[in-house]
Automatic annotation (TrEMBL):
Belongs to the PHAF1 family. PANTHER family: PHAGOSOME ASSEMBLY FACTOR 1, UPF0183 PROTEIN. InterPro entries: PHAF1, PHAF1/BROMI. This is Uncharacterized protein. It comes from Penicillium angulare. The lineage of its organism: Eukaryota, Fungi, Dikarya, Ascomycota, Pezizomycotina. Pfam families: PHAF1 (PF03676). GO terms for biological process: Golgi to plasma membrane protein transport. One of its GO terms (cellular component) is trans-Golgi network. Residues 284-323, 462-481 are annotated as: Disordered.
Length: 510
């Protein structure tokens, strides 16, 4: 006997299934599903280990008979599939999708899905003819897909009974058709119309299912993309609100709170072990950590908050709701915006990175102010790459680096090999020689897998002076020995955390 979820799940054609809303982020859905382990005891996540940002991500809930498909670049829910009807108690406008039969006092579910008659007469009513998919092998059954706006059912149909001239209602009502084996919920007027653009069309609903149907004034507008312009300047594209500019060293914590609401968490402590590399850069005559004359590589602290969001490791607890003035903040802390996909480092003003040499942005970075006012000095954009150590701590941030005004720039989906080639090219004239260029491009290895708990601080292995492998970024078994190692690559104003498959897991703009 197949176990069946007792809670009723409402079908909303074109919108979602229960709390599963089309357009919701992978972070939003996975976080909510994991918070109900008794309801969702089994979670399977499938993705491409070689190209996780371009190929779809599939979340399966086998105990609930559900499969959810997300696009790779934006990680938003595009398709909800019911693959095992007896495992989920579906309802549509007060009607059971699957009728249960009774044996004595025991209620048992049908081993199959709803019949065509039930779907057609009781649930959704008349429909235009669907499409027939012949069997791919020697099976005697093909598949007839019956589409309604935003929802479709698949019925096995005897191939020998199929004819283009048949009345599909009579055919599916006959013994030649079996009950439905699956149901799909999608955004569009019909399955044939939406199939080709399923993962590319603009989602109608926001990334957080909790804000669907609520007033825009009751929640902070969601971020669509960050535009990195150089010289410490970022433009933020939002879903409905006007674009917002962040100027590192000028934008204040109160500016962030006014636009994005209080942070989800505040983390004070940050890892200072990397400061040894800043000291080496300042004191050494032969190692120049910056291709920009007169400016040392200001390597950002990379203890990123996302890896240390639990306040037990913090020097003190800081309540996000107690931010009436900057005096309540420590001199250095992270604002964690998990649901917006970024962190902001708050400290006293510093000089931001220089403009890109190819950019028409002529404005030079401003000198740090002597004012005691705290400002945003770093923005950390999280890629939420499946398979990475900090996966699902933040929702995915998308960004574009605008090197000049003539092209579309480098994006969060660009392989790091492409990013590195472009950035090395624009900064090439600032290296004294090839030896200095090679020294600059040696990565620092970052391990997030060691420690007494998953929330432990990062560990740095090696340094800028030590060589690192430049070969393929994925091993034959797609494992790295369990250490979760990534590599850090720096350019003026930018620090990239890169996985072995070349995907950028995190970008720090400083």
């Amino acid at each position: 006997m197949t176990a069946r979820t007792s809670a009723q799940v409402q079908i909303f054609p074109g919108k979602g299934l229960g709390f599963l809303t089309l357009g919701a982020s992978l972070h939003n859905i996975l976080t909510r599903v994991k918070s109900y382990p008794k309801t969702y005891p089994s979670i399977d996540l499938s993705y491409s280990s070689t190209d996780p940002l371009c190929n779809p991500v599939v979340l399966q809930l086998p105990s609930n008979g559900l499969r959810l498909r997300f696009d790779g670049p934006d990680q938003r829910l595009r398709l909800i599939e019911v693959l095992d009807f007896p495992r989920v108690n579906l309802m549509y406008k007060g009607q059971d999708v699957l009728k249960a039969g009774k044996t004595g006092e025991t209620t048992i579910s049908s081993p199959q899905g709803p019949s065509f008659r039930h779907v057609y007469n009781r649930l959704f009513g008349p429909s235009y003819p669907g499409e027939y998919v012949p069997p791919a092998d020697n099976s005697p059954y093909g598949t007839y897909v019956l589409s309604y706006p935003g929802v479709a059912f698949s019925f096995p149909l005897q191939h020998s009974a199929w004819s283009d001239q048949c009345d599909f209602v009579a055919l599916l009502s006959s013994s030649a058709a079996l009950p439905a084996t699956s149901m799909a919920v999608f955004q569009g007027s019909s399955w044939p119309e939406v199939r080709a653009k399923l993962f590319t069309q603009q989602p109608q609903y926001p990334r957080s299912s909790a804000v669907v149907g609520k007033s825009r004034d009751s929640f902070a507008d969601e971020i669509e993309q960050f535009h990195i312009l150089g010289a410490g300047k970022l433009e933020i594209v939002r879903r409905t609100s006007p674009q917002l500019r962040i100027n590192l060293g000028e934008t204040t914590p109160q500016d962030l709170i006014a636009e994005f609401g209080p942070p989800d968490a505040i983390y004070r402590k940050h890892d200072r072990r990397i400061s040894i590399h800043r000291a080496a850069a300042a004191g050494g005559d032969n190692l120049h950590l910056s291709p920009s004359p007169g400016r040392g590589m200001d390597i950002p602290d990379t203890d990123h908050s996302s890896s240390n969001s639990v306040t037990d490791d913090s020097d003190e607890d800081i309540s996000p709701g107690n931010l009436s003035d900057s005096a309540s903040l420590p001199a250095e802390c992270f604002f964690n915006y998990f649901h917006h996909g970024f962190d902001a480092f708050i400290s006293y003003p510093t000089t931001p990175g220089p403009p890109f040499p190819t950019s028409e942005l002529s404005e030079q970075p401003h000198s740090p102010s002597s004012s005691p006012q705290l400002t945003v000095t770093k923005i950390i954009l999280h890629g939420n790459v499946p398979g990475s150590y900090p996966f699902n701590r933040h929702r995915r941030s998308r960004w574009t680096i605008h090197l000049d005004d003539s092209d579309d720039g480098l994006t969060s989906e660009s392989p790091y090999e492409e990013i590195s080639k472009r950035l090395r090219g624009i900064w090439k004239e600032y290296y004294n020689n090839q030896a200095e260029e090679r020294a600059m491009q040696r990565p620092m290895v970052l391990n997030r897998g060691w420690g007494d708990s998953p929330e432990s601080s990062v560990e740095f292995l090696g340094g800028w002076e030590e060589p690192a492998s430049k070969g393929p970024r994925s091993s034959s078994d797609n494992h790295d020995g369990g250490l979760g190692n990534t590599e850090l690559f720096g350019f003026p104003g930018l620090l990239f955390e890169v996985l072995k498959n070349g995907a950028v897991s995190c970008l720090t703009v400083y």
